[in-house]
Amino acid sequence: MLDVKDLVVAYGQSQALHGISFSAATKETVAIMGRNGMGKTTLFKSLMGVLPIKSGEVRVAGQDISRSESYKRVAQGIAYVPQGRMIFPTLTVEENIQTGLENSVTRRIPEEIYALFPVLWEMRSRKGGNLSGGQQQQLAIARALVTNPKVLLLDEPTEGIQPSIIKDIAKALNEIRKLRDITIVVSEQVLSFAMDVADRLFVIEGGRLVHETARADTDVARIKSYLSV
Ligand SMILES: Nc1ncnc2c1ncn2[C@@H]1O[C@H](COP(=O)(O)OP(=O)(O)OP(=O)(O)O)[C@@H](O)[C@H]1O
């Protein structure tokens, strides 16, 4: 479903990604693990078209999207939950989700969304800015999901979130891929969360994927050593 090949991205003269390649299948979740500054956000921004790529290719369901404008990529089946969530603080929960429904005539929020995140139903009339960090993260995921993506990208969804809500988010992500034909790519520093949601784990270091493992074969100590400074 998602095929990334030899992705090279630079900030001016400084190269940040040095040829990233990986694929992820429908109904598969992969985690990209790495410390701060290793290139996770750069990877996601370039997949989404927020940052231009220098060379390489990104395919979603076989279609090369790597030269498409960011807004077009949404129609081509890719959705992005950025680091820090970026919800609209002055819009209500319901209005925030509806911003993902721009192309829908009724702008009706599917029931499935509130079934996945019951807290968003309870909070639907509250302003996004009044939600806790964990609730905002669930809101950002809901907003991305209503675009019916084939590929969902989540950049460090557990950052600054309390453990009980991290469990809720893991549960929702596992439920989503059961319900939908979707590929989920999540960047993370929290190994326990990645082990809860991902079928395969990659480690990114200095803009390169340096390690890959299936969940069942994961050498936890080895991944931890990559994540510690
Ligand atoms: N706007 C920018 N201009 C120049 N260099 C940048 C810019 N943004 C990021 N970088 C560099 O690119 C590299 C990768 O950064 P990136 O933000 O992708 O890492 P990350 O793994 O997502 O870390 P974090 O979790 O802190 O966001 C780092 O060396 C960083 O200094």
Automatic annotation (TrEMBL):
Name used for this protein in its record: Urea ABC transporter ATP-binding subunit UrtE
Organism whose genome encodes this protein: Pelomonas cellulosilytica
Signal peptide: none
Entry-linked SUPFAM superfamilies: P-loop containing nucleoside triphosphate hydrolases
Residue ranges annotated for the ABC transporter domain, each copy included: 2-227
Keywords attached to this entry: Amino-acid transport, ATP-binding, Cell membrane, Membrane, Nucleotide-binding, Transport
Family: Belongs to the ABC transporter superfamily.
SMART domains named among the record's database cross-references: AAA (SM00382)
Lineage: Bacteria, Pseudomonadati, Pseudomonadota, Betaproteobacteria, Burkholderiales
Gene Ontology molecular-function annotations: ATP binding
A Pfam family that the UniProt record links to this protein: ABC_tran
